[in-house]
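Structure tokens please, single chain.
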Amino acid sequence: MATLAPRLEWMAGEIAETFFMELEPAKEFVSGEKKELVKFLEQGTSKKYCVYEEVAEEKDDGKGKKKKKKKGGVERRKVVPLKLTTDPTEITGKFLYFLRLTDAPIKVKTKVDKDLISGVFHTNALGPFSDTVEQIFEPLLKSVKLGKVTDEKRQVLVEQTAKFEESLKESIANLKGDITLAIPNLDNIEQSPKGYKAAAKSEATVKSCRKVLTTWINELTTYIAEDKSNELLEPGNTTGPEVEISFWNRRQLTLTNATEALNDPNSRTV
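Here you go.
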């Protein structure tokens, strides 16, 4: 394999550390993306580049259960399916970013300087934190003695932790959204006012879009009607205003998710 310039070798090292892989495969990945990365560094084709790992699809183990491809244990991995992108919104897991802090060309012969920084980000950081609260912190509160803390105060802590955990789960749901509308094939429609005008004159295209819209109306109506925010409190419930606030928070989340689904670029084309 050809020797990498110092800057590219540094980037390969960052990739190897982030995805816990051996250095040589990381250098091979950088070498394969060398043309794009050099443009990024010397010409400023983008402000940032992100490296992420493709998530393996779940496979049936023959016993009716799904299992993911094993990612290796303590040893560093030799094969990691990496991808490069300038758009982190398409990433669903951990990614390593390289960010330019200057508009001037960045020298590939210089290994490290203040003009290019790197960092690691996880798009689902709340998920592991929520699991930690639910599976570790809350059980500990219930079982471990906390010095001079009375049982009454311990119960208050447990209840507050449970509320915090529920709030985390709602925040995660808000970030992810829980409705996805089926999008038809729009490859034959030019994404421009001229293209939309031409598509509107096509009987087949209009018929297809009307069919999709009918499906969306049914899906959104069912989604909103069956959402738990429609469940009214039982008569005589005296749990206080916090439940009312929770009700309207969930209601807002439901309507926000429905609106965001319709505001997707492909949905707006339809």
